């Protein structure tokens, strides 16, 4: 039963992260490359979502639960550090972030 509860909570956080990416990523790029930049961010996440379960299962088989969860904790640590370098765009116009539209 606890696996279902923990899995449910994990899925809620995953949905929250995905929604945040779709709302925030387009603001990171100038208008002319916004679609491409957002696609790169989202597809990198899809690639990670496809590869990490395979890597985790290999680690679990080789090193047990501790190795698998250590890798997951490391991924969250990398994400926390990377978030420190993100551009804060709340309340700032896109023109101020990227300049006037080319055209």
**Total domain count:** 1
**What's the SSE pattern?**
HHH
Average pLDDT taken over every residue: 83
Number of strands: 0
Helical fraction: over 70%
Task: Characterize the structure shown.
With 103 residues, the chain is mostly helical. The chain has one domain. It has helices at 2-24, 34-83, 94-98.
Key features of this structure:
elongated; mainly alpha; 103 residues; 3 helices
What is the element layout, followed by pairings?
Layout: H1 2-24, H2 34-83, H3 94-98
Concise synopsis of the structure shown:
The protein is an all-alpha fold and 103 residues long. The protein is built from 3 helices and no strands.
């Amino acid at each position: 039963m606890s696996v279902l509860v923990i899995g449910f909570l994990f899925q809620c956080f995953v949905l929250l992260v995905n929604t945040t990416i779709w709302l925030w990523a387009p603001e990171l790029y100038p208008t002319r490359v916004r679609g491409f930049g957002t696609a790169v961010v989202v597809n990198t996440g899809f690639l990670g979502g496809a590869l990490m379960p395979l890597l985790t299962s290999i680690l679990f088989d080789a090193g047990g639960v501790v190795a698998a969860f250590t890798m997951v904790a490391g991924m969250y640590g990398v994400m926390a550090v990377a978030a420190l370098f993100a551009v804060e765009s709340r309340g700032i116009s896109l023109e101020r972030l990227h300049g006037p539209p080319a055209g």
